[in-house]
Write a structure and sequence with these properties.
172 residues; Four Helix Bundle (Hemerythrin (Met), subunit A); 59% helix
Length: 172
């Protein structure tokens, strides 16, 4: 899995708490623009060439995909998962023209993070449910539902860090 915060020791409850915090944290980062034109700042490319809106939207789309993967592993026997579950470089989200409205990106992130948190907070069949596995297409690697949930947490955190960096660069 890609670099980022070490999520290997997070419990499902820890993951739920982290996911539920992302919308608040993203809104705080955007609010920290101190009256500047937040829509304009959020469109400025950061150090990695992506704007805050692109980071937030990419995190939301990834969370949607990862949430579906968690759900599949929890309810199906040995599902086949898309490579993007483990391979961040396979998460290509086409954005045509302007990357979008920052408030829409925040709403999208909130809905996606809450959706994954709800799946994780629901009845996962007890501790055994988190040990259920799926197979990643192409590599054949087996991943547990908890592995995928932890990847959702890592992905959300990376999206927030990217958005923060882009906004910081835009302000200077």
């Amino acid at each position: 899995m890609p670099a980022g915060p070490d999520t290997s020791r997070l419990s499902p409850a820890d993951c739920v708490a982290a996911l539920r915090s992302y919308p608040r944290r993203a809104r705080q980062a955007v609010a920290a623009t101190n009256g500047d034109d937040v829509d304009a700042l959020a469109e400025v490319a950061g150090p990695d060439g992506r704007s805050a809106v692109q980071h937030l939207d990419g995190a939301a789309r990834s969370l949607e995909m990862l949430g579906e993967a968690v759900r599949s592993v929890l309810v199906q026997d040995g599902p086949t998962l898309v490579p993007a579950v483990l391979d961040e470089s396979a998460r290509v989200w086409v954005v045509e023209g302007s990357s979008g409205d920052v408030h829409a990106a925040l709403d999208h992130l909130e809905a996606a993070a809450q959706s994954v948190a709800e799946v994780a907070a629901g009845d996962a069949g007890g501790a055994e449910g988190w040990d259920r596995t799926g197979t990643v297409a192409g590599s054949g690697e087996e991943v547990s539902a908890l592995d995928v949930l932890r990847e959702a947490v890592r992905t959300g955190a990376a999206g927030l860090r990217g958005a923060d960096a882009a906004l910081a660069a835009a302000r200077h």
